Amino acid sequence: MVYDLYYWAEIPGRGEFPRLVLEAAGAPYRDVVRLPEEEGGGMAAMSAFQEGRGPHIPFAPPFLVDGDTVVSQAGVIAAYLGEKLGLAPESEADRQFARSIALTTADAVAEAHDVHHPVGIGLYYEDQKPEARRRAAEFREERMVKFLRWYEKLIEANGSGYLAGRRLTYADLGLFQLVEGLRYAFPKRMRVIEGDYPGVRALVETVRVQEKIAAYLKSDRRLPFNENGIFRHYRELDGE
Ligand SMILES: N[C@@H](CCC(=O)N[C@@H](CS)C(=O)NCC(=O)O)C(=O)O
């Protein structure tokens, strides 16, 4: 079974959360929008799906199509794939909690996005710069620390080096992507605070060297962060 992942072709964005799970598991998948139209890809394929093929119509990308099953919401897709592909914890309690972690990571991602778009997602960054500066200060000082401290506490309490259970899961892959995104968007701030979270740092490195992830990160399937995406680096929004 080949999974179909639908997401914007030019940014890693939220599509990267399910994509990392597919890559870490070595699962066969198509990044549909990145394919040529002659092969059933391109933006037309994504629009057609959102307009035409009910009853399960996703509100926004990313979404995954697995036969008759359609799943949207980055954290939910990551959980769905992780549970199917052996990248979820074993016990029921840990499996449930891993889902909570993935959705909390999605919240953190949304907040990182809202730093550069605090007034409206349909407006240009240039039209909301003063508000973005205010939002960025609060995000850097309060929210980044609160999220990272929570992940650190989870790793400490769990005792295995992972966020939930005793093996690498989609929740860990999500933390990897969040930390990489924060490092890209807020390099100065991350340099100052990262050292306070040694468990998080170690887990990010564990993910980076996982065999399939290491190969993926070197491939051209891995898109760099950029200023059209969720994690954007604007010098004026970063600070120690
Ligand atoms: N909560 C959703 C958010 C989805 C979302 O906002 N997707 C963006 C791209 S990252 C989009 O294309 N949104 C279109 C829209 O909201 O109209 C998730 O985590 O997947």
From TrEMBL:
Q: Could you give a GO molecular-function term held by this entry?
A: glutathione transferase activity
> Which Pfam families does the entry mention?
GST_C_3
What's the superkingdom here? Bacteria
Instruction: Identify the keywords attached in UniProt to this record, alphabetized.
Output: Transferase
The residue ranges of the GST N-terminal domain are 1-89
Per UniProt, residues of the GST C-terminal domain are 91-225
Q: What is its EC number?
A: 2.5.1.18
Q: Which InterPro entries match?
A: Glutathione-S-Trfase_C-like, Glutathione-S-Trfase_C_sf, Glutathione_S-Trfase_N, GST_C, GST_superfamily, Thioredoxin-like_sf
- What is this protein's name? Glutathione S-transferase
